[in-house]
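--- STAGE predict ---
source: upstream dedup step, 1 unique chain passed
mode: sequence only
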Amino acid sequence: MRDVQRHGRRLVRAILTLTMVLTTLADAVPARANWRSLTGLLPVFANSFFGAGTFSPDGQYLVYTADAEVDDVAYLYSVPVAGGAPIRLNPDLAAGGGVGSYKITADSQSVIYASRPMNRGIESIYRVPIGGGASVQLSGSLGLHGTTGPFEIDPTTQRVVYKAFESGTGVPALYSVPIAGGTPVQISAVLASGRTIANFGIDPIGGQVIYIADAEVAGRLEMYGVASTGGTPVRLSPVGATVENGFAFDPFLPVVAFKATPSGSSNTHLYLNATAGGALIQLNVALGAGDNVFSYAFTPDGTKVVYGVNTGPAAGGHWRGNLYAVSIGGGVSTPLSVPTDVSYGADVLWFSITPDSQRVVFNYQLVSLIAPELQSVRVDGTDRQTLYTQGASGAIGFIYASPDSQWALFNVGQAQRLYRAPVGGGSAVPLDVLSAPAFTGDGQRLIALDYDTYASGDTSYDLVSVGLGDLSLWNLTRLETGAEIWGWTPVAADGQTLAYLVRHTNGAETRYEIRITDGAAAPYRLHLAVIRK
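--- STAGE serialize ---
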């Protein structure tokens, strides 16, 4: 009896000891999330993908392209996130044909896609139900125009706007057609032979199409605005100015910001105009010889524009200059950076605005390139904080602000490891993950690549989820040896579901599949190395 009692006490002590050990290991080893395959392993020849696909706005479907049936012929598929077989959405295509770009409508009911039926064939634009069905051609017939180019969806008018090249001449034009189908309408001005439409976009507030074209003088780009339903285009850029190929829309007002070089000037300035046309506003400070507006962005609340002016040539890949904030109505610009000498200031190539529109985080060169520093400042120029100082000549780049506006995330040095620092000031902490993060819907966790140091003999990178506050680490992908991440989607509407493309290598054979993870921790945190995969 006493022997039994002694053995019982020893067993209890052994269990307690094992529990303590397991608890310690559980704290050290990242928790894992649950995943499942959406496509299964695709055929050996399948290697044409447009990332890992796109979630529908309601999160019910993942849409993707792959040459999963015929080698080098990319078809369009949707697959229910809740489970089910992939559904091919477009009709049969000849060898060399394929689906190019695609977009999902805001109501998650349809997919708009561009497709060519054969190699070097005419590309056209179609609509198809997201759950499968007949495709309807939206772009015009060959009698109206030839092949099509990029397209966008106007959410305010429920129309598709696309670029097409006219039959016979190859001159580009913009057309608009209802998503439901109908006769396309040309909305851009007629261009002379040899002219181009360099870019276009749709104002999400006012239903206006902005496009950049050399309509007046060959080789000199101007900016125009026209209603997506049609009408007379209005020039938005200064008379005689050369517009740079790019622009940004205010998130709450029908206005557009863009850069242009006035006639007779060598300086690039920043302008703002209503997308339907109106009073043109120059936003930037007076520029010295050789100075140019380099980068710019609206604050998320749409009330200000933050912009950088580069002063002099780039050094070591960094554009030296100064950072400012200005009201969208124009007026006096507020300096956000304070140079310590005449040559260095903000690295105007990289800055990030917090989602609450309160602060700007930017790179700052103290002296030459030997002490790069990360600073944070309020948009009114006050409460400047130093978040991180790099002691050697390593670069700081890819600056992000967390969705809750509490954290600055940035990469440092050649290894580009990710750091976290409070935007209002405080110590920077290395997160030991790589760059290119996404965020969960609640903004409390980021998703990035990380080398799985717990997997013995496994040199692949996994997708991991890191808690921005508690730094807890969850492994989302559980990749096998020989597997690697080849791309992943933004997080779906539920705030945590993520799809990712996996490349499997087994000897000379390479195969792909798309998997999905729920982004949540596994029900237990203990994973010993011998049972990792």
